[in-house]
Amino acid sequence: xxxxxGRRQAPFDAPEKHLPAHVATKADEVFLLAxxxxxxxxxxxxxxxQQLFGRTSFPQEYVxxxxxxxxxxKRRILVSRGGEAAKKAFSFVFQRLLRHPRRQExxxxxxxxQMDFVVDQPVRVDFYKLRLxxxxxxxxxxxxxxxxxxxxxxxxxxxxxxxxxxxxxxxxGQLRDYLHRVHGEEYVRQAVxxxxxSLSFVSRGDAGKNxxxxxxxxxxxxxxxxxxxxxxxxxxxxxxxxxxxEQGGKFLYYYDAALDTRRDHEHPHRDPRKNPxxxxxxxxxxxxxxxxxxxxxxxxxxxxxxxxxxxYLLDQTRIQEYQGREGGFVYSEKKGKLGGSAIxxxxxxxxxxxxxxxxxxxxxxxxxxxxxxxxxxxGEFIYYNIYLDKPxxxxxxxxYFSFYYPGEAVCGLARYLHLAAPADRKLICEKLRKALxxxxxxxxxxRASEYTVLPSDSWLMMGIKELWDFPEIxxxxxxDFVFADARKMVQLMYTxxxxxxxxxxxxxxxxxxxxxxxxxxxxxxxxxAYELAVKMGDRKTAxxxxxxxxxxxxxxxxxxxxEDSLYFAPRPxxxxxxxxxxxxxxxxxxxxxxxxxxxxxxxxxxxxxxDQAARAART
Length: 619
Known about the structure:
Distance between the termini: 43 Å
Strand content: 5-15%
Low-confidence stretches: 1-9
Helix content: 40-55%
Number of strands: 17
């Protein structure tokens, strides 16, 4: 079993040094122009191509060369040669690509060309004994390792390292299922497998920018983290949200860029057109993304998107009286979730505080009154007031436990305190004290099995940060909880000095050696801890957390669908700006966009001050 190495100096610094981007030479760019011309025309002067290739910075010696041509909406073309055939000349393989019967079909579209060079001999493996676990003698790194396999019919097949990214595969089970679907299980079980790694490059666009990008795990190598990269990611996310939001206010809930489908893998039998699944809590997250963007960018361009989202939300909100006063809760998918009403309140409060527009004030009051009345005498919240159209009693509450909904309720009520009347503010603070006592003291004992080694209650961390605006509810134990969870997150984050693979840096793990878990939701909690430290004037803690936040942001950029990263996609126009859940999974939801884009938008206002502080510390 792999052991976690000791921490070394500067573990959060400069991940790009461990995974350098390709710096294209002039010869590389001239070579690309010649290849593009050949693909478009179908003509290739072999000697000229070979001479141009010989001047490039690409590997000149290799045991296998693979060329892949992609075009939107078209099945890719792959040609490959190994052994002596590969050694003949680059132009030999390229001519095979040009002679492909579908080459002209792709050449009329904006195409991308990928080149994979295998420079070391492949190694024989037992496909069914391969494991993801680092330290295992049959370790297989999804997205970094590839397979060539000889079938019982004598045909050679390839699964390139980057195919895990292009085919949306993250586990060995998914890889085996994929090959079984393609060939049949019996064929795969009889095949002879070899594992290999490749140096992979893809052309940028249709050579319009005339350069090459290095791929690692199928994704363009990230390079240095900059403020501009974060801004670009947020802008892409916002453009995607604006492009795909329905006129009635709903957001594009789910999209799989590999299969060009909206069929949700968690609800595979629901027709996305006739009976789409829609999560109202995540709906509110789409509007929050726009609001956090506006708080940073101040463009005003997404406020109409927010209002449309609010109107849809209010259509799902029901009125209910508590002690003779109107409350309101969000009802959707036959459920009244604490979290749905909580994030709705958070979003309405954010909107009003940012814009000054009080048109939804009455609805915010109703939601707040509902949440206040969901706090029981013990301080525990009622998790669902309606479940599958049946009211939930306090006695039944334990059957519907949710770890995250109470933190969301704290966050919503904390933000609403800025809008509450004095009498309501006092009552809300009393209820929040009771709820926080339960969440921080009682729940860790009664629900110990729900806690993981990697902290996950980011909404609660953010809620406590929001509460710090109100002196009457500040408590050192609340801050201690936030900082303790933040430090545990940092301890369970891969760094540049211990990451098993260079792109693991900045991602979280439960057990060292786990596949990288870049997580925007947890990063929002970590940022909440940083912002709490700033509010408290605790510069030491803020300085401790900021380098980890930067490294986490670098990891999260690997999830952002940029113009460069969608070379494989059937519909790059629809996938652009989506933010995926995992490194080599191509589906995304509105909430996977929300957590990462919101994290970036909330981090950006601190960027310049932290850069100046870092420069001052160095001098």
